[in-house]
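Today's session is about reading a structure prediction critically. Students often jump straight to the picture, but the first step is always the sequence itself: look for stretches that repeat, for charged clusters, for runs of hydrophobic residues. Only then move on to the predicted structure, which in these notes is written as discrete structure tokens rather than atom positions. Here is the chain we will use throughout the hour.
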Amino acid sequence: MNVLVVNAGSSSLKLGVLDEDDIVLAETQVERWSGGDQTGPLKDFLSDAPTVDAVGHRVVHGGSEFACATAIDDDVRAGIEALTGLAPLHQPRALAGVDAARRLLPDVAQVACFDTAFHTTMSAAATTYAVPAAWRRRWDLRRFGFHGLSHAYASRRATELAARPGARVVSCHLGSGASLAAVADGRSVDTTMGFTPLAGLVMATRSGDVDPGLLVWLQRAGLTLDDLEDGLEHHSGLAGLSEVGGDLRDVRKAANNGDQRAVLALQVHLHRLRQGIAAMTASLGGIDVLVFTGGVGEHDAALRADTAAGLAFLGIDLDTGRNADVVADNRVSRDASAVEVWVVEAREDVEIATQTRALLNSNERRKR
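Below is the predicted structure for this chain, in token form.
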């Protein structure tokens, strides 16, 4: 079964065709894609791509309704659209990808794979907000968690590489968006993002956690809801702290040149990351494997070293040489380290293809 993976981000579009062994037969990436020209990039890609037997779509928010990969029909599409307010940067792009693929491949099965689904195994204690019960009932207020496709793959791959089935894993998905997940025996038990992808770690332009009372105060001081949303989503995080932008490489360069705003940005970013990993470890009752994935997690050796240096009390002992020269899917901790630390290539495409095949094969078996 060749699966076309459509991974629509907040501003980009990744397309790939994977065969039954998850070998990439064709792939492309559109760096700037608003979703407006819905069929154009996909039509161009399909003109030279191998035969496609199924399509798997990454969808950021599945709410409470979608707890696993789901075949897309008109009702499911409507359900995804109804969740747009919870992920306004991502949901419309995902729908544009769905619409394009359904239009160009009307006879091919389409499957939605949700970033939130992996975290549906979290307990009520981990997902419930301490806000008025009437609010929770009316609006389904709860922690959903995100980056689930990445955390699912990275945690599973790390336990395979470490040969430690059932391990307690803290997965660090670090990129422009960033989150952590606590994974026990392959199941998510905690994560840093919440009702929306705005919560948790300091990100490129997103604030991560802030005091809700601060937001109330800012509204009373004159900021509108639109002001708050724009500021927290687009002008906070590393960009807001450093004032040189949200790319960690640019911030590090500015810090090395003596820019104290950039120095503070790195310090705040690192503090929150260490704090989050320790919190995820507490949720697991200990840690066996720490895994870094995502663009920053895979390629920023200095960040991995600085993170580990503050977590030695957990039994994390990085090997300087391994960490400096690492390529993806390799161990960067010392042999004697109580906690194994791995760098794993982000492969959301593999997770989407795997979930798509599993659903369609299961449906086929039921028909028989």
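Discussion point for the tutorial: The chain has a mean pLDDT of 95.
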